[in-house]
Fold this protein.
Amino acid sequence: MLRDKSLIPLSHQHQHALALCVRIDRALPIPESDLDEWQSEIEQEFRGEIAIHFSAEEQVVFPAAKRFNELASVVENLLIEHVDLRRLFARAEDRALNSSELAAFAGKLSNHIRTEERKLFEMLQQLLDATELAELGNHLAIALKDAAHACSVPNPATRLRKK
């Protein structure tokens, strides 16, 4: 299903985060000497976009979705995942993730995004009418106004390299 224009800003942010996840996955195993650089990039991504993204979802999207019984458990699981992901982002900020934890982080973030895109957003588009979707989009625009609007540029240690 085509993404409704009200949800496109969140989907664009999902693409940015998925790009980071793909780069982490392709760089595995990440050498110990590069862990700080990867965690620095994760911290930058969280501060510039993902923290604001999570807040917008929690304040705007999730309350709209929780009105529907068929989305209540999806939202509850996504909220639990936000808590877990915030903990992992904090560990990255503290430079406390090892290579296997970094890989697990990328997998968790990727799975979380796919659940939002494939379940939450798809069902919201079916359950909300055009007026409700437009109103949701207006609230999201306000909630996302301070977020970065571009992918972060990888630093030399986090760029994909030919193997």
User: Anything to note?
Assistant: Residues 8-143 form a domain with the Four Helix Bundle (Hemerythrin (Met), subunit A) fold (CATH 1.20.120). The two ends are 36 Å apart (CA to CA). The longest helix spans residues 35-66. The chain is about 75% helix and 0% strand.
